[in-house]
Amino acid sequence: MIRQISLMTLVSVGFIAFNALAFNRTTYFRLTPSDFRHLVTASETLMMNNVSPAGTRKGTVLASPSTNNPNYYYMWVRDAALTMNVVQDRQALFDYVDISLLQQSEPGQVGLGEPKYMSDGSVFTGPWGRPQNDGPALRAITVIGLANRLIDEGNLAYVRSKLYDGKLPTHSLVKADLEYVAAHWQDPNFDLWEESLGQHLYTLLAQRKALQLGSALAKKLNDPQAASFYAAQAQAIDDSLTDFWDPSRGYLVGTIDQQVGPDHTSGLDVSVILAALHSTSGSESFGVTDDRVLATAYALEMAFRNTYRINQIPEFQNLGTAIGRYPEDWYDGYNAKQGVTLGNPWFLATNAYAELYYRANRQFRAQGSIHISALNKVFFEHLTALKGTTFNVGDVYYSGDAKFTAIVNALVTDGDRFLACVKFHANGDNLSEEFNRDTGYMQGAHDLTWSYASMITAVNARP
Ligand code: NOJ
Ligand code: NOJ
User: Fold this and answer.
1) What does each of the 463 residues of the chain score in pLDDT, given as a tens digit?
2) 0.85 cut: is pTM over it?
3) Closest ligand to residue 329's CA
4) Residue 194 annotated to the active site
5) Cis peptide bond upstream of 169, omega within 30
6) How far is the CA of 193 from the centre of ligand 2 (A)?
7) Whose CA is nearest to atom 4 of ligand 2?
8) Residue ranges around ligand 2 (CB below 6 Å)
9) I want to staple 349 with a disulfide (CB 3.0 to 4.6 A). Which of 44, 270, 330, 386 is the partner?
10) Which residue's CA is minimally distant from atom 10 of ligand 1?
């Protein structure tokens, strides 16, 4: 046993030494403006390789081209919506609309809560965690964005025929999703990690956003009853969210009322951060400057510092903390077996921290003030450039104040560190799903589409 441990330690120390060498032992991996531009263009190309690739039905957004160990050669509703939300190409968006309409027309086992489809467009029928109700909400958010652009351009005919017909029963993509979301948001369902049955902050915030945007669209398209129904449901969701705040632990939990699923004792989950990014804008509740979100970001980052060995390696100290899904995670990118496998940091989660910090910078500057509260104080004090600074609860800093400037600048330099962490552990421009918690080497599905989408939104948010 002892020999085994020391052998394992030797092997991983070897890996780490190699990594550190390649890293030239520079103390801070500083990304240049041209690095940032390259990260976006390279990720765009690699992401688009997974959109309608040869051999798939047009409009397919593969989660990854990997066909075994793990098999990600499917179109997940969630991954596809998050990807198509950053795609500009009109034809690609129209193809996505068409395949989504086809998928909506297939009943499956749980209707629009079906999580994934085959590469020919048919529904996946094997056993899986279903329903996953974030899917229709995320798809609505993405497609409403397209609908609003088309309306601005005067292409009302397309919008009315394919996206929002204002009829019941409806044969249009967005209206069908909105009706489903409005009717089912209270149902227990599987989380974005496809493991836990319960109520999830990530899913509910996506549903709230879809219904808010849907209400505005319905109003624009002369469907006033739907507009007020969707707005009322969005408000009802909003009123239901108080239980996600755990006052005794001082952070937001990802899931409540969990009936099925793996150990989630800490309640900490990066899905709370993803929810702020994917489903809020401006100063909305649960947004990027909400002090509950910042308290959660801090608690989660500390948990991952303690959980992953790569976060404790001295040579990596100037890279941002490698972030995973949740501290108790067992899924190693291939299997999930309690006591056998262990979860790892994820690129999309680490990118999310960069995006959170960048967007918090922008939001604080737009607000023009930062209020120090008992909840956000530790978050500000942990920023690298502010080590040793103490903030007082109740203090307010305004733009122009030295402390305001120090905080917003520290958010950008620490945001950059998370991207430096990703760039360091990436294999060139390629991003898989995960990177090993001990060595930093990539593992899990290769060329994960969502990893690329998360890189693009992170860098684009950089002030
Ligand atoms: C595959 C799922 O997509 C992943 O989220 C999950 O952790 C594993 N299966 C284990 O259930
Ligand atoms: C596993 C992740 O947990 C889930 O969120 C994702 O949809 C699938 N992999 C496909 O990428």
Assistant:
1) 233 333 344 344 444 444 444 444 444 578 999 999 999 999 999 999 999 999 999 999 999 999 999 999 999 999 999 999 999 999 999 999 999 999 999 999 999 999 999 999 999 999 999 999 999 999 999 999 999 999 999 999 999 999 999 999 999 999 999 999 999 999 999 999 999 999 999 999 999 999 999 999 999 999 999 999 999 999 999 999 999 999 999 999 999 999 999 999 999 999 999 999 999 999 999 999 999 999 999 999 999 999 999 999 998 889 999 999 999 999 999 999 999 999 999 999 999 999 999 999 999 999 999 999 999 999 999 999 999 999 999 999 999 999 999 999 999 999 999 999 999 999 999 999 999 999 999 999 999 999 999 999 999 999 9
2) yes
3) 1
4) yes
5) yes
6) 6
7) 193
8) 63, 72, 76, 78-79, 192-194, 450
9) 270
10) 336
Q: Which two tokens stand for residue 137?
A: 């909400």
Which pair of structure tokens corresponds to residue 300? Answer: 């989660």
By alpha-carbon position, which residue is closest to atom 1 of ligand 2?
193
Return the structure tokens found at 198: 């319960």
Q: Report d(CA 96, CA 90) in Å as an integer.
A: 10
191 is catalytic: yes
Q: Which of 179, 191, 332, 414 is catalytic?
A: 191
- Tell me, using a 6 A CB cutoff, whether residue 336 lines ligand 1: yes
Task: Judge residue 259's burial from the number of C-beta atoms within 10 Å of its C-beta, 0-12 exposed, 13-18 middle, 19 or more buried.
Answer: exposed
- Closest ligand 1 atom to Cα of 336: 10
Only one residue has tokens 């795609």, namely: 87
Identify the bridge partners of residue 76 per DSSP, sorted by sequence position.
116
CA 77 – ligand 2 centroid, Å: 10
Domains of the chain: 1-30+307-463 (1.50.10.10), 59-269 (1.50.10.10)
3-state SS assignment for residue 454: helix
Q: Which atom of ligand 1 is nearest to the CA of 195?
A: 11
Q: Is the preceding peptide bond at 224 cis, omega within 30 degrees of 0? A: no
